[in-house]
Design a protein that fits this description.
heterodimer; A: about 120 residues; mainly beta; 7-stranded mixed beta sheet; 4-stranded antiparallel beta sheet; B: mainly beta; 6-stranded mixed beta sheet; 5-stranded antiparallel beta sheet; globular
Amino acid sequence: DAGVTQSPTHLIKTRGQQVTLRCSPKSGHDTVSWYQQALGQGPQFIFQYYEEEERQRGNFPDRFSGHQFPNYSSELNVNALLLGDSALYLCASSREDRGIQFLGNTIYFGEGSWLTVV
Amino acid sequence: AQSVTQLGSHVSVSEGALVLLRCNYSSSVPPYLFWYVQYPNQGLQLLLKYTSAATLVKGINGFEAEFKKSETSFHLTKPSAHMSDAAEYFCAVLLNTGTASKLTFGTGTRLQVTL
């Protein structure tokens, strides 16, 4: 049973460029969240997708956008990259049943995508 | 707002010694609490979770945590540290906004295990 998979694992971008990060959730999971972890910090919630819609966003600018596909996989897009966007981007998946949130359901994280902006 | 505070950004113990990593929470509703571990250059791995069942929660790798409402604490312990326990540990609380659920993490505690 594959866990949460993310790609790419590492990438380097230049300021002003755009980046797309990808995530496949754990089998059976339908909810995907994205977190940003800056060096020496705890992960910060970016947004969450369920049924192909963004339903919660953290304190991140509109440069950060995402998408969820019918197969539950997800993309995180960041436009106009800034040096401060350099971080580990983590994807997390969980399962909900008929829209009812089972808060006890375990949230699984991927290995992350390391983004360096130069 | 729900939040967690981890006391001590760095903890150093000798191999075989007791590990105690502190986490205090703030929540207006009964919290769902988690401990995650992050090894160097890796993602987050769930150690254990508290979801209002037993107050003493046992996790993987010999770790356990006790939920104490009176102290608003959820400290992580392990009786005997092993070199392989050296990692960053994060306490987190799950916030349910009604439309989504998100984890709010503490700033982390780096555990060093020495010979």
